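Collaborator request, handled under Task 6.
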Amino acid sequence: MKQPRTHLKALILALAAIGSPGLLYAEGTNEAQPAQGQEQQADSTDSAELEAIEVTARRRYASGYQPISADVIGGGNTPLLEVPRSVNIVTPAVLEDRRPGSLDEALLTVSGIRQANTLAGTLEAVVKRGFGDNRDNSVLRNGMQMTQTHVFSPTAERVEVLKGPASTLYGVQDPGGVVNVVTKQPQLKPARSVSTSFGSHSARQVGVDFTGPIGSSQSWAYRFIADYRQSDYWRNFGEIKQTTIAPSIKWIGEHTTITAAYEYLDYTVPFDRGTFLDSTPGANYGKPLAIPAKRRLDEPFSEQSGKNHMFQFTLDQYLSEHWKMRLNYGFTYHTYDDWKARIDNSGPKLTPPRRSAGIDTSTGTVRRRIDGTQDARLRVHNLALSFKGDVHTGSVRHKLGFGLEAMHNDRLLGKIYQSPANNYTINMYNPVYGRISPQPGVNTIDGQGNNTQQTEILKTFALYANDDIHFGEKWIVSAGLRAEYFDQYAGRANRNFVFKANTDNHGWNFSPSLGVTYRLTPQWSLYGSYATSFRPQVSIANEIPGDAKPEKGRSFEIGAKFAGERLSAALAAFHIIKQNVSYSVTSGGQTETRYAGRARSMGFEAEMGGQITERLGVNANYAYTETKILEAEAAAQGLPLNNTPRNQFGLYLTYDFGNALGGNWRAGIGAKYNGAWYIGKNAASGDRLWKIPAATVADAFVSYEAKFGGNKLNVRLNGKNLTNRLYYTSTVGSSAQYPMIAIGNPREISVSAKFEF
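C-alpha cells returned to the collaborator:
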C-alpha cells in the first residue's frame, strides 16, 4: 500500500500546482511552475517518485543528449518546435561526457560553427555560418553581453546557439548568430560534489560545487563553485593556469525570485600565434613551415595574464498568473597584461609570389620584435527591463514581450610597448631561447607604440517588442522589432601621446524579424523566417567618416523540426547577405576605404540528438556552407570567406552497458570532420588565397558510476584527438599580411573523478 499512497500524494500535489493562483506561469506553455523554485534536474535518474512528479511541472531544457527548449529566444524557456529559427543546445550531458576545456571544444557538436581568430588563444571567438570574429558581441552569458574572454568556465551548465541575424533580440551583432553560455543556478535541493582530474601535459584539476538551502529556509538557496586547473602547454614551452571562484544566492518568494551571482577568474595562458604558412617559392610554398608542430618561434615570456570579474543580478516578478516582469543587470570587468616576441612581416617582399619579410626559410632566420600590452581594461555594463505575458483575443493567443535595454561597452589598452626595431632574430631550425626579455625603456619604446592608448567605446539604448501569435494549435506567427540608438567612439594616440578619434558616429537603427511556424503534428513543425542584423562601422587605426552606414545583414531560412519522446532532429536551409562591408582600394599610391562591400553565405544544416534506443545515444550534425565575397576590391571578389569549410560533419555515439563490478558503465566515441577552408585576400597587392587542408579528429570516453551509502562516485576516462592528427583551427591575425594559423591540440588523455554527497 505504500507505493499507491506515494503516487496519490504526488498526483494531488501536481494538480494543486497547476491550479494554484500563487504559482508561476510558465512561458511558452500553459503549465505552471512551482512557486518555491524547484529547479529541474534534467538528467537525474535517481529522484524519488514524488520529486519526479514535481519537476515535470516545469519544462525541461534537455534530456540527456536531446535538446527540448532554450532561453536564447528572448529569455523564455521556449520549446524548440515553436521557434522559427535554428537553435542548438549543448546539453549538460554532452558537457559532462566530453569535458570540453574551452568554448570551441564545447561547440564541436553544433553544425556550422568554427573557431575564429582568438587573438593568439587569449579570448573566445566563433564563426557562425561564415560570419563573426573576436569582440563581435556574439558570446553571451545568461543572455547578456560580456567581454568576449573566458565566458565559458566551470560554472557553465549548457550552451545555446541561435544561428542567423539576431539584432532584433540582442542589438549590435554580425549576421552569423549568437552563443549563450548558461550558468549553474542555486538550488533548494541540496547537492554537493568534489571533482578532480589528471591528464596529459601534467594537467591537474580540483573543484567543488555545493548548492542547497541556506539553513532550514525554503526561500533562500546558495551555490558555491570553486575550481583550479593547471597544465603545461603542449608546445615546447608555456603554462596554462586558471582559478575560478563563483558564489551565487537566490531568494524565492511566492511571486518574486531574486538571483545574484559573482564569478572571479584568474588566468594565465600562452600568447601563441601558431605557425606561419610558407610564402617562400619552393616545394613547401603555401604549406605550414617545415618545422615540428611543437616548436614555437617566440619566447617563454609570450603569455597573457588576466583577471575577470563578472556579476549578474536578476529580479523576476510575477505580476499575475500570465504576466512576468524581469530586471537584469550584468557587469564585467576584465584586466590583463601580456608580452610577446612577435614575428614581423613588414619590409620588402619578393613578388610574385609573395614572400614573408620576417622569415627566411633558406637560412632559417626569423626576425621578431617585442610587443607588450600592460594595464589593459575591458568593461561592460548591461541593464534590461522586460515584460512577458499571454493575451487572448478570441481564439487567438498572443505571447507578448517588450522592454528596454541599455549597454555600455568600453575597451582601453593603456600602455602598449613595441620594440624600436625588428632585430631580435631566432633560427627556426635550431632555436635558442631566453636571450631576450621585455624591458620597457631599454628594448622597447616605453608606452609609445604606433597604436598606444587604443580606445573603443560602444553605448546603446534600445526599445523592442515581439509577439508570438498562436492561431489555434497549428499556426504560430512570430514578429519582432527593435529600435536601437548607438554611439560609437574609437581611436588611439601617436608616439607623442596625441589622441585621434578615428571613429565617432551615432544614430538609430531598426531591426525587424518575422517567422511562421506550422505544427504539422505534435512532434513535427515546419517553419520559415526573415531576420536582420546591424553593426556600426568602427576602426581604431583608420578614420571612419561620420556618414558611413552600419554593416547590415538579412537572412531567409526555412526548415523542419522533430521532437519525439527520446530523439530530436532539425533540418534548415539558409541564405544570408551582409552589406556595407568596409574594404580598401589603392589607386595612385593612395588608399581609400569604401563601405559598399557585400558578402553571402548560403547552405543547409542537419542535426540529431537524443536516444536511438534505450541504451544507444547519438549526437550527429552536418553543415554545408558556401560563402562568397560579392563586392570588394577586384582581387577579392568571388573568394570565399575566411575560416569557413564548405563541409562539416560530426557523429558521436554513446552506449549504456548497464551494471557490472558494482556500478553502471557507459562509453562514447565520435569524430568531427572539417573540410578544407581558406584564408587570404587582396591578391592584387601580392597576397593570395591560402587553402588549409581538411581534418578529422576523433574523441572517446568511458564512464563508471557507482553508489556508496547513497553517495555517487563517477570515474571517467577521456581521450581527445585519439589518432594524434595534426590539424589547424583558425587564422591568427591579419591573413593578408600575416598568414598565421592556429594549431589544434594533439592527443590528450585524462582521468577524472566526481564524488557527490
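The cover message to the collaborator said: "The helical segments are 2-19, 49-55, 92-98, 103-106, 167-170. The two ends are 31 Å apart (CA to CA). Please let us know whether this matches your experimental observations."
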